[in-house]
TrEMBL record:
Binds 1 zinc ion per subunit. Catalyzes the conversion of GTP to 2,5-diamino-6-ribosylamino-4(3H)-pyrimidinone 5'-phosphate (DARP), formate and pyrophosphate. GO terms for molecular function: GTP cyclohydrolase II activity. Its EC number is 3.5.4.25. PANTHER family: 3,4-DIHYDROXY-2-BUTANONE 4-PHOSPHATE SYNTHASE (PTHR21327:SF18), GTP CYCLOHYDROLASE II-RELATED (PTHR21327). It comes from Sedimentitalea todarodis. Zn(2+) binds at residues 223, 234, 236. The keyword Hydrolase applies. This is GTP cyclohydrolase-2. Keywords: GTP-binding, Hydrolase, Metal-binding, Nucleotide-binding, Riboflavin biosynthesis, Zinc.
Length: 363
């Protein structure tokens, strides 16, 4: 018998540690690093890191590196060498594009060439999964197991982590209950929880959705600003309401409400992106300047939930061809694409046009 947490539980702990500003230990074969999120870094922790090894690296994604005009010798990421006198402000200016235009970085950034960046790559994936900026400060650490035990830190085995981060966490159906709604009195809300205790996702059944026929379905990614606040910057709120209205009118449908705020980067990062959009960057450029890809969502989640509810075929309400492709690839057949062309405003015309030209959305 062992009460030890497994790798998915340790990764959940590591995400929480990064969010709190506590370092984690990533142990690979023959090498290990101590890593901290740049976003939650303090001068004290930086000094502590330097006491462990006086050679901190700031790992950033190649997207962020391109904006900083540095070399990403590691391909998808770069290991920026910290000058001896660099402080937390310096680290945060590397990681966070908020002041890129106001205070361009002085001098070229030096990045590591050669050596192994695998541990840093995994640390960046963890920062993204923690919905933080994708940037970490890291130093090498000898004897990682003893170091983690002495300091009470979470230690992650790199090989296990790498494999686990590619998989998705199995979802458990937690509870479902009747929910009469304006669009249909026959509603039912199901709550799904990932095994690692991560963010929950919801499925809302409207009317009587038969399992042996294609169901009218929508995979809706959470948009706090659009869904709840009536933001005019996107089309999410009107799309959500139009999808539900159509399901109500047809008498059946299933709405998946996926907690993938900001195309999977989280609300804080989405607001960072909005602030860059006010500096003139479009929705895709803003994501890249922050160090993210255009879209960080995993739509396999949607097919997992549909399958667990017993659906295998859908009429999908979407303008996004990537959602259709992912459904088909993961065993849900899309017999029809039902367009959702609502919610165009003077504020979001540019956003919708960018989605059409850069992300292949159908206008
Ligand atoms: N990063 C980022 N996310 C945004 C921005 N505007 C909206 N979003 C997010 O984009 C997502 C939109 O999701 P959906 O409407 O489900 O997806 P879609 O890819 O537009 O596809 P369809 O609506 O199905 O056509 C939500 O998670 C929003 O929070 C933005 O400017 N930047
Ligand atoms: Zn939105």
């Amino acid at each position: 018998m062992s009460l030890m947490p497994d790798i998915s539980e340790l990764l959940a702990r590591a995400r929480a540690d990064l969010r709190m500003g506590v370092p984690i230990v990533l142990a690979g074969e023959g090498a290990a690093i101590l890593a901290l999120s740049t976003e939650t870094l303090t001068e004290q922790r930086l000094a502590d890191l330097r006491a462990v090894a006086n050679t901190p690296i700031v790992a950033i994604t190649a997207r962020r590196t391109a904006t900083l005009k540095a070399h990403a010798y590691d391909g998808d990421l770069a290991r920026v060498i910290m000058p001896a006198d660099a402080d937390v402000n310096w680290v945060q200016a590397v990681a966070d594009p908020a002041d890129d235009l106001k205070a361009p970085m002085k001098g070229p950034l030096r990045t590591e060439r050669g050596g192994d960046a695998n541990l840093h790559r995994t640390a960046l994936k963890l920062a993204k999964a923690a919905r933080l900026l994708p940037a970490v400060v890291a130093v090498p650490v000898a004897d990682p197991a003893a170091f983690a035990a002495q300091n009470g830190l979470t230690m992650i085995d790199h090989q296990l982590a790498k494999r686990h981060l590619e998989d998705r966490n199995p979802l458990a159906a937690v509870v479902s209950a009747r929910l009469p709604m304006q669009v249909s009195e026959a509603g039912r809300l199901h709550v799904f929880r990932p095994e690692d205790g991560g963010e929950e996702h919801y499925s809302i059944e409207i009317g009587r959705a038969l399992r042996d026929k294609p169901v009218l379905a929508r995979l809706h990614s959470a948009c706090f600003t659009g869904d709840l606040l009536g933001s005019l910057k996107c089309d999410c709120g009107p799309q959500l309401r139009a999808a539900m209205a159509q399901m109500g009118a047809e008498g059946a449908g299933v709405l998946l409400y996926l907690n993938q705020e900001g195309r999977g980067i989280g609300l804080a990062n989405k607001m960072r992106a909005y602030s860059l959009q006010d500096q003139g960057f479009d929705t895709v450029e803003a994501n890249h300047r922050l160090g993210f890809e255009d879209d960080e969502r995993d739509f396999r989640l949607g097919s997992d939930i549909l399958k667990s509810l017993g659906f295998s075929s859908v009429r999908l309400l979407t303008n996004n061809p990537a959602k259709i492709a992912m459904m088909e690839k993961t065993g849900i057949s899309v017999v029809e694409r039902v367009p959702l062309k609502v919610g165009k405003t003077a504020h979001n015309a540019g956003y919708l046009a960018t989605k059409a030209t850069k992300s292949g959305h159908l206008l």
